[in-house]
């Protein structure tokens, strides 16, 4: 083998190995690290506790989740300096399937988000007799309902609407009655 070919192969192999090494080091941080850092997310249990202490009220979460796979779930209670922005959030995500994204937002009724008629698709009656409103907002299918002086918003990425129907969200909402 000529010296030129040998040097080319050594250079190529060195560059290839260096690229692999740099790529492995540049791998993004896992969700377990990113979410707490960028969004002040924590365990769902801790976020529920924060909400309950702040509002001096028990918080009931649905017992069911959408029938799709999730790899992570995080909770967050936002205690804003502006009283009306205080809210609880649970986020379910899948680090392999970005469309598997489900979120629960809960806030006191006195700070509820208004429902804009242009987004409303249909209304449903929950088994406790309350009405739930199904909407499509910015790439998410959302079921909004009120109970226990709280506004609940169940949001699912619309890319999984063939697996998570409005009726599925209604079943999830009904699972709070325990």
- The count of helical stretches stands at 4
> What Rg, in angstroms, do the CA atoms define?
23 Å
Structural class: alpha+beta
Number of strand segments: 7
Profile the largest sheet: 7 strands, antiparallel
Mean of residue pLDDT values: 83
User: How would you write the strand order of the largest sheet?
Assistant: 1-2-3-7-6-5-4
User: What portion of residues belong to β-strands?
Assistant: 25-35%
Question: What is the N-to-C succession of helices and strands?
Answer: HHHEEEEEEEH
Give the overall form. Answer: globular
Low-confidence sequence ranges: 4-25
Termini gap: 77 Å
Helix content class: 25-40%
Question: What does this entry look like structurally?
Answer:
The chain has 178 residues and is of the alpha+beta class. 30% of the residues lie in helices and 28% in strands. The protein contains four helices and seven strands. The protein has helices at 3-25, 31-39, 44-55, 166-174; strands at 72-78, 87-93, 102-108, 120-125, 131-137, 140-147, 150-157. Strands 1-2-3-7-6-5-4 form a seven-stranded antiparallel beta sheet, sandwiched between helices. Residues 4-25 have low confidence and may be disordered.
